[in-house]
Amino acid sequence: MKSFNYHRPADLADAAKWLAAHPEARLLAGGQSLLPAMKLQLAAPSDLIDLGALAALKGIRVDGSQVVIGAMTPHAEVAASAEVRRAIPALAALADGIGDRQVRNRGTLGGSLANNDPAACYPAAVLGLGAVVRTDRREIAADDFFLGMYETALAPDEIITAVAFPVPRRATYLKFRQPASRFALVGVFVSDGPQGVRVAVTGAGPCVFRASALEAALGKQFSADALRGITVDPAELNSDMHASADYRAHLIPVLTGRAVTAALAA
């Protein structure tokens, strides 16, 4: 690991100022992805700007028909939140299935989204619920936020402050996990809410994406039977030592059907 300068800003303005002043700096949220990358010399920031002291970026609140979660809120807090369990139980269950206890207690919502790992769980929830990502300068719709592998719509000096999740009528997240890392080989978040039926898939491609054919079928009939005969093209899906693209393509409608059945039974 190369040497770096460490900053611990007292407020968001200071964090934004230091980030703008140091083009090679990186924000430190939970550090569960960034620090391992630094140890492997896959990342070598000149400065780390630790957001841990910014209380304004933490917390959960229900605001009308949406749940607003601060960017620095740990996964474990989301999983344990009575408000989240009551309003969007699928989101609480998703958070409770991320990594292990250390990751859930250190990793944060904003850090996960900014990193945009192809197999991360939170991007599926954000895209599957049609959430809005709030930053220190604007609001970004989920459909516009995720651009590609480890790529988002964030500017280099932009900071995620919170995410607003619309409360759906019903939703479920299921993932077929890689047993060692607990990342998703394929994860599917299905919701039926204010924006209609949405099906977001993580782990299968270079970036989280919506399965439009499955959404169209479920929009007509929200049941597993509506997915019979629908297949997913494996051409642009991931293929690696853990699973082939064909296998991932097979899992997507299977997991979606199971998620729909679970949502109807909840």
Task: Describe what is shown at a glance.
Helix content is 34%, strand content 24%. The protein has 266 residues and is α+β, with helices and mostly antiparallel strands. The strands form 4 sheets. Strands 4-5-10-6-7 form a 5-stranded antiparallel β-sheet. Strands 11-12-13-14 form a 4-stranded antiparallel β-sheet, with helices on both faces. Strands 1-3-2 form a 3-stranded parallel β-sheet, covered by helices on one side.
Overall mean pLDDT stands at 95
C-alpha Rg (nearest Å)? 18 Å
Helix content: 25-40%
Q: What is the H-and-E element order? A: EHEHEEEHHHHHHEEHEEEEEEEHH
Q: How much strand content do the residues show?
A: 15-25%
Number of helices: 11
What is the CATH class name of the domain at 170-265? Answer: Alpha Beta
In CATH terms, the superfamily of the domain at 170-265 is CO dehydrogenase flavoprotein, C-terminal domain
CATH architectural name of the domain at 170-265 = 2-Layer Sandwich
Extended strand count: 14
Strand order of the largest sheet: 4-5-10-6-7
Shape: globular
**Major β-sheet annotation:** 5 strands, antiparallel
Q: Span from first to last CA?
A: 47 Å
Which structural class do the helices and strands define? alpha+beta
Low-confidence stretches: none
Q: Would you tell me which CATH topology of the domain at 170-265 applies?
A: Enolase-like, domain 1
InterPro entries: CO_DH_flav_C (IPR005107), CO_DH_flav_C_dom_sf (IPR036683), Diverse_Substr_Oxidored (IPR051312), FAD-bd_PCMH (IPR016166), FAD-bd_PCMH-like_sf (IPR036318), FAD-bd_PCMH_sub1 (IPR016167), FAD-bd_PCMH_sub2 (IPR016169), Mopterin_DH_FAD-bd (IPR002346)
Domain FAD-binding PCMH-type: 1-170
Pfam families: CO_deh_flav_C, FAD_binding_5
Keywords: FAD, Flavoprotein, Oxidoreductase
